[in-house]
Amino acid sequence: MSESIDLGPSLAEDCSKHTGPAPVTQDAVFGEITEEGPNYRDVGWLGTVALMMKTQFGLGVLSIPQILDSLGVVPGILCILAIAVITTWSNYVIGTFKLNHPEVYAIDDVGELLFGRIGREILGTAVCIYWIFCSCSGLLSTSIGLNAVSSHGTCTAVFVLVSAIASFCLASIRTLGKIKWTAWVGVGSIFTAVMIATIAVGLQERPPTAPRDSQWASDYKIVGSPSFMKAVTAVSSIVFAYAGTPGFFPIAAEMRNPSLYTRALLICQFAITAIYIAIGTVIYYYCGSYVAAPALGSAGTLIKKVAYGIALPGLVASTVIVLHVSERQPNKYLFVRMLRGSEHLTANSFKHWATWFGCTFTVTISSYLIASGIPIFSDLVSLIGALLGTLMSFQPMGCVWLYDNWRRGRELPTLKWFLLSGWSILVIVCGSFLMVAGTWGSIINIVASSKAASGSSAWSCFDNSNS
């Protein structure tokens, strides 16, 4: 653990605003943290809960009802629970690995410990691309919200640009301790918006896109019969809904008390899973196959405007957290990597600020370009979950557990060691399968959607709030 760090703050200290000067500390990642520079170790466990929930809750929940439409209610819920169990275990492994290896800040550090320089470069590059794509989904969903509220007041490409500018400004705040307020705002606004939409779909006569020439009855499916391609892309979307895993490394690294990580994790995962199942099931039950993607558009024009108006701060917050959390956006990942070992990492120097703003700007521009290039929300979500979500949440975490426990367990094997070793290998295999199959299915869907959806081509003015 880092030296001179207070590992036991009280709940009152955690909830209160830190008003005194930051103590001089020595951290295994950030080096010397002084009163003059930013304090990167200033996130309490309640703030950790908010950051964890915001890295997952927001964009993922908006795709859950459509996932249930593809798989059916029962298989869909079972898949949600299965992914929840795997990612909860993966996230738990992150906490224990961080305690065992305090020098680890991001998943590229894990890659170097496991596989040397090649592992660092592969996972470092992959996580950069992953966070860029995640921020793309945030920009895209924000543009959908702006289209909905304004009744398509201008070109969608313009709304994506506006979202990028707003997110860039907020993401330029340097530390998680100072940006965690956006997580609380984001969770609250999106939860409120989703609840409004959920209640509204139960009160409406029929979904807005359902036929008007006959008596309405929801065509929800208890068990669906999707093709293999549709099933695997649906599961990939569930993975995306839980794929905040790589962002948990920097969250743990910036906690004042990393030993409270597991407490925050369990609260986050239980709450997220309960919300996904409850909201997804209710919206799908009342809308059936006419459920919208994102789900906030399922309750008619007026409710859609209200829900998106309330959700907009949360949609922006999703992008901001993605653009900030060390890997959930390559911004701070690149920043720490470029300045690690240098006095400029924790000093308010010109090089410090120039590097920080340069990284943030580069990632924001990259996200804007991709968000404009793939304007269909559900397709983008499934592609991220398949290609990069599994690679960030499954395979590395299985390898991490084996790295810390394989040699010691072989010397004194126990039943627990055999079971956890088998589980770790199973996670690696499942992740690899989903990555290949899900990516294939998602690409086919993107091509098909581009041909079928008139006007929804890249860089178009197409109203993406009417999906």
UniProtKB/TrEMBL annotation:
Residues covered by region (Disordered): 1-20
Keyword Transmembrane among record annotations: yes
MF terms (GO), sorted A to Z: L-amino acid transmembrane transporter activity
TM segment ranges: 73-94, 122-144, 150-171, 183-203, 231-252, 264-286, 306-325, 353-374, 380-403, 415-440
GO annotations of cellular component type: membrane
Residue ranges constituting the Amino acid transporter transmembrane domain according to the UniProt record: 44-444
One of the Pfam families matching this protein, by short name: Aa_trans
Top-rank lineage group of the source organism: Eukaryota
Keyword field: Membrane, Transmembrane, Transmembrane helix
InterPro entries tied to this protein: AA_transpt_TM
Membrane topology: Multi-pass membrane protein
Cell compartment(s), UniProt: Membrane
Recorded family membership: Belongs to the amino acid/polyamine transporter 2 family.
Name this polypeptide is given: Pc20g10730 protein
